[in-house]
Amino acid sequence: MEYIKDPKMIEVRSFEIIQGIIDDIRPGYKFKNEIEEKIIKRCIHTSADFEYLDILKISETAVQKIIDALNNKCTIYTDTNMALSGINKTKLNALGCEYKCLVADEITKELAKEKGITRSMAAVELAMKDEGRKIFVLGNAPTALYKVIEMFDAGYSVDAVVGVPVGFVGAAESKYSLEQTQIPYIVAEGRKGGSNVAAAIVNAILYAM
Amino acid sequence: MEYIKDPKMIEVRSFEIIQGIIDDIRPGYKFKNEIEEKIIKRCIHTSADFEYLDILKISETAVQKIIDALNNKCTIYTDTNMALSGINKTKLNALGCEYKCLVADEITKELAKEKGITRSMAAVELAMKDEGRKIFVLGNAPTALYKVIEMFDAGYSVDAVVGVPVGFVGAAESKYSLEQTQIPYIVAEGRKGGSNVAAAIVNAILYAM
């Protein structure tokens, strides 16, 4: 069988096709700026879902805050190992950033049990107690996103949140709540999102740096 | 803030809402059988994308072959660590199944370089040389799916393929090719799919067993 086997060629051609489809289905669609274009196209690349043209929202300072945190050895906290798996570790290592998914740690399980909260929430509580700059990357757990908002409101520091929990119970509401805060955010409004989309957003920024 | 915090309740309620939306947007939609319903709904659960109602296709013997392989200590080979992360390991361990993503192994890199093929293809070549029963779970790499088909045609044994590479270059074509073979398959026709969808399909079957 004959097929394109060069991963770099496949990626370049994929983004050309994505633009071609946008021209076709949404003539005149304008991205606000180059980085928004790169983020949204990478969300489409990972999902083949063009609804991200309409639902992906980036607050004014979010990209600059994320880049600044990444340039200052921040830690990325994900709510699933799947999101963590998808993020480009070579780039993060080169920047000297750390990356963690605390959700399955023993200490997280104990804290969740003790407090009667979800492990996703307990993982946020533990993360917030770490020193240093923080980006939360959440593709799954609305409860984690609510907990980040609660702790930010209580005075804990957060550099930015990639808030794209997918789902039918609390996901849309949690993202709407995030948009009402002063936290720099990137969200997928409504039900859509996911670990793949969360990782794609972070990678789009890493590749643009 | 008040929100549902019990993960089991969230899941039950999510599937009720999914059925409600199906009733609403596709009145009279009928699943072929209970396991197809569980698989498709779990794809929707992980993506919030109801297009899986139309594009998810399961060959006649696929589910039975997968269950049979899982009951006989098969190995699951994924094309990404992301797909591997998303699959329920507790269930696989209880069944005595193994699970591997070979794509980043040194031996895979060497073989890919030596042969001038993608690492995804080299990972399939190495997997095929293992003893025992095999399920391939592919959410990313059309080249891996083509390689599975080539090696099956050359006489290598494959129990089943969950073939849901997402993308714009070769993804749809690779899945169409799989549908033309005698390999038991579960595919997402067209461009959609992904590591999250691949894991969701395996989990739906594991939870139904």
What does this 3D model show about the protein?
2 copies of one chain form a homodimer. Helices cover 55% and strands 11% of the residues of chain A. Chain A is built from 11 helices and 6 strands. Chain A has one domain: Rossmann fold (3-Layer(aba) Sandwich), CATH 3.40.50.10230. Chain A is globular and about 55 Å long. Chain A is α/β, with parallel strands linked by helices and 209 residues long. The longest helix of chain A is centred in the N-terminal third of the chain and has 19 residues, at 7-25. In chain A, strands 1-6-5-4-2-3 form a 6-stranded mixed sheet, sandwiched between helices. The model of chain A has no long low-confidence stretch (mean pLDDT 96). In chain A, α7 (106-115) packs across α8. Chain A has helices spanning 7-25, 34-47, 52-55, 62-70, 81-86, 89-95, 106-115, 119-129, 142-153, 171-179, 195-208; strands at 56-58, 75-78, 98-100, 134-138, 160-163, 185-188. At the A-B interface, α1, α2, α5, α9 and α10 of A face α1, α2, α5, α9 and α10 of B.
